[in-house]
């Protein structure tokens, strides 16, 4: 009986740890995406102050990644002609 309780307790503990680690991983991803968005939008605005940044407060993660990919492609195109 004690073994069952101990085993159940251990399983619950592992689930709690996994849940906590997953939350921390998601928090790191969200923080990095937010930083990436701010860096890219700032660089775009510095390069072209006329760019309208309205509506960029709340961007989806996929939009941030697409914006970043397009920005890097644009930079690469300017530095590597042909």
Output the number of helix runs: 2
Rough shape? elongated
Share of residues in helices = over 70%
- How can the largest sheet be summarized? none
Number of strands: 0
The number of domains is 1
Name of the CATH homologous superfamily = Helix-loop-helix DNA-binding domain
Straight-line N-to-C gap: 74 Å
Which percent range describes the beta-strand content? under 5%
User: What is the fold named in CATH at topology level?
Assistant: MYOD Basic-Helix-Loop-Helix Domain, subunit B
The value of Rg in angstroms is 22 Å
Assign the CATH architecture.
Irregular
Just give the CATH class. Answer: Few Secondary Structures
| Low-pLDDT residue spans | none
- String of helices and strands: HH
Helix and strand composition category? mainly alpha
Q: What average pLDDT do the residues reach? A: 87
Walk me through what this model shows.
By secondary structure, the chain is an all-alpha fold. The chain has a single domain (2-79), classed as Helix-loop-helix DNA-binding domain (MYOD Basic-Helix-Loop-Helix Domain, subunit B), CATH 4.10.280. It has 2 helices and no strands. The chain has helices at residues 2-47, 61-79. Helix 1 (2-47) crosses helix 2 (61-79). The N and C termini lie far apart (74 Å). The mean pLDDT is 87.
């Amino acid at each position: 009986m004690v073994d069952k309780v101990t085993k159940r307790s251990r399983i619950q503990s592992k689930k709690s740890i996994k849940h906590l680690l997953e939350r921390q991983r998601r928090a790191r991803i969200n923080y990095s995406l937010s930083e990436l968005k701010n860096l890219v939008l700032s660089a775009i605005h510095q390069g072209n102050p006329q760019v309208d940044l309205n509506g960029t407060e709340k961007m989806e993660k996929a939009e941030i990644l697409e914006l970043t990919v397009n920005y890097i492609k644009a930079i690469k195109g300017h530095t590597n002609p042909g």
